[in-house]
């Protein structure tokens, strides 16, 4: 049984079919990348998984159990944490407080334990350790992305959903963020990663799916996807990315 399975998911915004019959699986221990250009339906797919968007039809199974219709808090409690697009670090809270918020789904934890775990997070994110007491707004984009990922990990998820962690970051920072994703996988957390940056997205992935205007058009290992001429042209730098 797969850890996560989407079966013919459809999500509409009014007339717009943002996600149009998407089926995919994520096995335990994998990093799976969902590629696609702007507006392809990547974020909506993640929002459907985390309960923030309601599918018009289809099913989403976590270890074989449907999670469609559950409240987002309940979905987090069952082990799916999402790091949303755009980072959303609380500007007036300290970095440590931002990270601690990620544990709010875990009942019966003392604040002191949460604080200790948040401080342990800095082993994985040494670049932000020195900002533990700094306010969120003082951080750079890359540092905020690290805070957002650390907050997601504080939920101790079985599967972490990452929505375009490289967006708007300088190349060297993107490298650092992807090194962390590789380390997260090494530590045993399953990751479903959404990316427009196919090169980086596939560099850490076991498998990938390509989404175009709400429909999956291709899937395979990174090697298989790289060897597809059309995909390479559209997403991997052969010509300008599809708008
Ligand atoms: N809240 C919304 N209301 C109406 N349309 C939306 C909303 N969010 C996304 N869309 C539309 O749904 C489609 C898919 O969007 P999205 O899932 O954000 O794509 P991606 O993350 O791949 O860029 C786009 O056409 C977008 O304009
Ligand atoms: Mg998006």
Give helix and strand order, one letter per element, not per position: EEEHEEHEHHHHEHEHEEHH
- What small-molecule ligands were found? adenosine-5'-diphosphate, magnesium ion
Strand order of the largest sheet: 6-7-8-3-9-10
Provide the CATH top-level class. Answer: Alpha Beta
Family: Belongs to the ABC transporter superfamily.
GO molecular function, one term: ATP binding
Protein name: ABC transporter ATP-binding protein
Pfam families: ABC_tran
Write a structural description.
The N and C termini lie far apart (37 Å). The chain has helices at 42-49, 72-77, 95-100, 111-121, 126-129, 141-153, 171-186, 198-203, 222-226, 229-235, and strands at residues 4-13, 16-26, 31-35, 57-62, 65-66, 80-83, 159-163, 190-195, 207-212, 215-220. The chain has 10 helices and 10 strands. Residues 238-243 have low confidence and may be disordered. The strands form 2 sheets. A 6-stranded mixed beta sheet has the order 6-7-8-3-9-10, with helices on both faces. Strand 4 (57-62) and strand 5 form a beta hairpin. The protein is of the alpha/beta class and 243 residues long. 34% of the residues lie in helices and 25% in strands. The longest helix has 16 residues, at 171-186. Residues 42-43, 85, 163-164 line the site of magnesium ion. Keywords: Amino-acid transport, ATP-binding, Nucleotide-binding, Transport. InterPro entries: AAA+_ATPase, ABC_transporter-like_ATP-bd, ABC_transporter-like_CS, BCAA_Transport_ATP-bd_LivF, P-loop_NTPase.
């Amino acid at each position: 049984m797969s850890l996560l399975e989407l079966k013919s998911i459809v999500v509409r915004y009014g007339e717009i079919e943002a996600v149009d019959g998407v089926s995919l699986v994520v096995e335990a221990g994998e990093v799976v990348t969902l590629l696609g250009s702007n507006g392809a339906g990547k974020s909506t797919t993640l929002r459907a998984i985390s309960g923030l968007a309601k599918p018009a039809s289809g099913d989403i199974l976590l270890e074989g159990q449907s999670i469609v219709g559950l409240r987002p808090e309940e979905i987090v409690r069952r082990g799916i944490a999402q790091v949303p697009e755009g980072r959303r670090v609380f500007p007036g809270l300290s970095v440590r407080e931002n990270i601690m918020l990620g544990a709010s789904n875990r009942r019966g934890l003392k604040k002191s334990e949460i604080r200790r775990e948040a401080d342990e997070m800095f082993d994985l994110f040494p670049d932000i350790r020195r900002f533990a007491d700094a306010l969120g707004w003082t951080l750079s984009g890359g540092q905020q992305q690290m805070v957002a990922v650390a907050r997601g990990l504080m939920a101790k998820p079985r599967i972490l959903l990452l929505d375009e962690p490289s967006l708007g970051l300088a190349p060297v920072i993107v490298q650092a963020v992807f090194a962390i994703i590789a380390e997260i996988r090494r530590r045993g957390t399953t990751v479903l990663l959404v990316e427009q940056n196919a090169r980086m997205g596939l560099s850490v992935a076991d498998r990938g799916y390509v989404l175009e205007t709400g429909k999956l058009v291709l899937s395979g290992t990174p090697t298989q996807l790289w060897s597809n001429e059309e995909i390479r042209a559209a997403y991997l730098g052969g010509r300008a990315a599809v708008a």
